[in-house]
Amino acid sequence: SHRQRQGGRNGVKGESGASDDELASDVLSHYSSASESASVVDEATGGEPVDEQTAQEETEDKLKQCIDNLMDKSAKTRLAALDSLGGAFSSKLLYDFLIERRLTVSDCLERSLRKGGGEEQAAAATVCAQLCVQLGGGDEGEEGFKILRPVLSAIMIDGCASVSARQSCARALGMCCYVSAAEDGEDLVKSMSHLESVFTMSYPNREGTLPTPNAGAPGLHSAALHFWALLVTLCPASRLNVLLDLHLPKLQACLESSDVNYRIAVGETIALLVELGRDIDREFEFEDSDTLCECLKGLATDGNKHRAKNDRRKQRTIFREVLHYIENEDFSEEKIRFGVEGIYIDSWMRRRVYDAFKEVLESGVRHHLQYNPLLRDIFGLGPPLILDSSVKSSKISRFEKHLFNSAAFKARTKLRNKVRDKRADVM
Hints:
Interferon-related developmental regulator 2; mainly alpha; ARM-type_fold; IFRD
């Protein structure tokens, strides 16, 4: 895997006697085999199961080494450490381990964002988003976001920064803000306006002409638009009405974009905005819905031979769904299964929230749905059915208590629910 290929400092061994790439691959192979660890038999102990606590301590030692490596002089070493932490953060719950080290990790991430090259900045931003998800929606997560928000915003809006770093910062900014959105909503407004300043670069000019995108711009615009849309789900009704008027007509024009993935991101965002509009006003009508539906029909049946076959198929599928929803509020429900449970993705809002976590956690999203109280609260799943062995059972209550009692966490849930409340105050 890419992460395991990251080499050590010219093969130099670290203090632990293992080179950085060995450490990286050790941490990852531990996580990939974690699910089977219960059945691993240690022959040296005459067939006794491996001591779970020992395995846990070994993992923590490797993670501590990774955190030390974030401060290394070698960019290659720092990048390998970021990749290892990313793999660990996405595939395990590490709240107890991180709660005591969160400021150290935040400081290291901030340093990588400020001083690292494009690849290091992109990796650090990804780990920022995962750290927020690990810490949950409490004061600790909010504290981390306050430290990291200015630098994530600065890189994202910097036209001279690497496109992959800007794209990763857009995702991290949106996710961290969603998880930590504070009571006053100020962070939410600021983060949304920074994300807007990025994707509105794709909007048509006064003559109605779409700009020609630079290399990599559609991917950056898609990330900014998707994570802006995630934050729109937190907005109160009054703010939402302003956003709908402002953005829907411009987004409709962007359906003509030359990039298939950006067209799809725009289509999904239009569907989400219309759904939120209908949520606060049953009579909500898209201003020029006939033209919109004609455009959507064209995209849902696009047979343009200049486009790659897979792109055409993906586009047709998504735009058929968008068209069905706009015309008759029909949504294709999907069930995501994990362990013995599952969640229904039965609205554009739930799809946007699930897809955002999936983008940040990748294949680890199912593990977090099973065990992470933050995701379980967002999707209405209640406390975990079984405990993740990495969170000692005596401490899970501490995590949940901390999470569910936190003012910031309640604020995020409350903000999300305001969408359903027509009486919501102006933000």
